[in-house]
Every structure is written in structure tokens, then in C-alpha cells.
Amino acid sequence: MIAPPSARPLAMTMGDPAGIGPELALKAWLSRDKIGASFFVIADRRALADLAAKLGLEVPIIAAEPAGAAEIFDYALPVAPLSHEAAAAPGKPDAKYAAATIESIERAVAYVRSGEASAVVTNPIAKHILYQAGFAHPGHTEFLGALAAAWGGPARPVMMLWSPELSVIPVTIHIPLAEAPRALTREAIIETTRIAARALKERFKIARPRLAVAGLNPHAGEGGAMGREEIDIIAPAIAALRAEGLDVVGPLPADTMFHAAARKNYDAAIVMYHDQGLIPLKTLAFDEGVNVTLGLPFIRTSPDHGTAFDIAGTGRANPSSLIAALRLAARLAAA
What we know:
- By secondary structure, this protein is an alpha/beta fold.
- It has helices spanning 21-30, 45-55, 66-73, 98-113, 127-132, 140-150, 180-183, 186-202, 229-243, 260-263, 274-285, 320-334; strands at 10-13, 39-43, 61-63, 77-81, 120-121, 158-162, 167-170, 210-214, 247-252, 268-271, 290-294, 300-303.
- It folds into two domains: 1-156 and 298-335, Isopropylmalate Dehydrogenase; 158-295, Isopropylmalate Dehydrogenase.
- Helix content is 39%, strand content 16%.
């Protein structure tokens, strides 16, 4: 019999081995009393031990399969060893370690699928390094969607950036800004908002999620004077969603919907493009922001920052966002 999610460990990926992910994993274990769940890391055990010694972090590391991770966790960091080497020099990304990075992600998803782990928590990757090795996906979110689709899950992942202060969900994500207006459709807004509402209800236990939809143009188009996307695309999508019974308002001017008083009126903001939502989120909660992928048949969270190659291996990496991602993954798994 498979154990309930709250009794299973979280599966953490290594991220880019030359980035701060390995250091964050070590520091997260040292702060394990703040997390409320056990976890294991899918990584190069020897490289992780060498990094702990270099940084003076007293983290015992034991090779373990997920089934034994919870018993080990109190006194050592469990590591599920990779089949690929990942002994990258901190701060010196190298495409020859791309296979290890990808394997770590694939194995994490497989562990959740098999019931050996309760959720996936990913450390940051460097997409441009993976592209050099033939990686065919725009980013983590899209790769996880492909992995879900490969075993019969939904193939429409939606990225949410969550924090205690603000949650934002972009309709368009990893595309050039110039292409965002062309990619914006009624169908994309409707589908993204439906997925967001369902996840907020089922996983975050918000009985009737309140969703605020941003406009695309300044002043939400100013009645068509600054663009017609609000009139032709966004407002009709909102009308269709409201007809389904969802609590949706908008389109709202993006420059006035993120201050403290405005945020009290909604549970999440649906924004039209990446930076429209991520700039306010990271301004308000850079160290506590968590990337959550909605629309998957499993829980996935991640720190809301990058690989930080410039400080990798220096001991200066802040684990707060990874700790927040672990805490949220544990909360969603328990729910």
C-alpha cells in the first residue's frame, strides 16, 4: 500500500550543478526544522559532499533510495545518486553536465508517479546550457508538462508565482515581449484562469477563488485609445469565465492592482505576460517567492530565482526561497 503524501518525502532536483542549487540543498537540510517534511536530493553524492566540505557545512550525506529517506533525514541528507556525473566547478556551467540535470528532473517526476515521493521541488537550471546539449523545451515548466503528458497527465502546465503577499499567474510565459500580444487569445486566458481556479480550490483549499485579470496595455487600454486587446480579447474571456460561475474581475490597469489595498480583493492575479506579474511579485517577496506549476497531475514547486553562477560556491547563497518552496510543497501534499 502506498503511504499517504504527508508520510512520503519530497523529491528535490539538483538544478544546474554549477549553480547555487547544490549549496541551497545543503543549507535547506540544515534548516530542516523549518520545513515540516523530509526530502531527498537527486544529485551526485560525491560532488555534494565535496561542496559541503569546501563550504564548511556540517551536512552528513548518505546515498539512499526514497523509501529510506524519511528514516535518514533527521541525521543526514539522503541523496538518490545520479547515473551521470555532475561534478561541475561552481560558477562554471558546462553543457557536458546537462544530461545529469535532465536526469535529476526526470527521476523526480518518476518518483512521484510511482508513489515514492509526495511532490517535486526543483532547483534552478540554466536553460541556455541545456539548449547547447539539445534540450528542446523553453523551460522547466514546459518540460514538466511534457513529462506529465508522457504518462497520461494533462499537457497544459500553468506557472504560478506564489508568496504570502501576492500570487501571480501569467497567460504567456517564456516568449519575447514583442510576441506576447500575438500569443494572447481568449482561449488562452480562459484555459489559464480555469486551471488556476481549480488548483486554488483543490490544492490551496480556497472555497471560491477570487481572480483579478490584468489588462495588457497602459490603463487597461483606456477604452480602446491605447489598444483594443482589452475590448476584443480580455473582456470577452472574462465574460465567458463569469458565465461559468467563476469569481473573476477585470481587465484591471496593471499599475494599480498590486498595492496593498488592491491585493486584499483577490487571491491571485492573472497577468498577460511574464514581467507584468513577476516584477511586482519579486519586488514584494524576492526571498519568499515560490514557483508553482499548476495543471499537472503532481505537485511541483521551485525557488523563484535563477542559478546565480556569480556567487556559486562562495557560501553566500540564500536558501530562503528554496525553504519556502519545500514548505509549500509539503503543505500542498498534505492537503
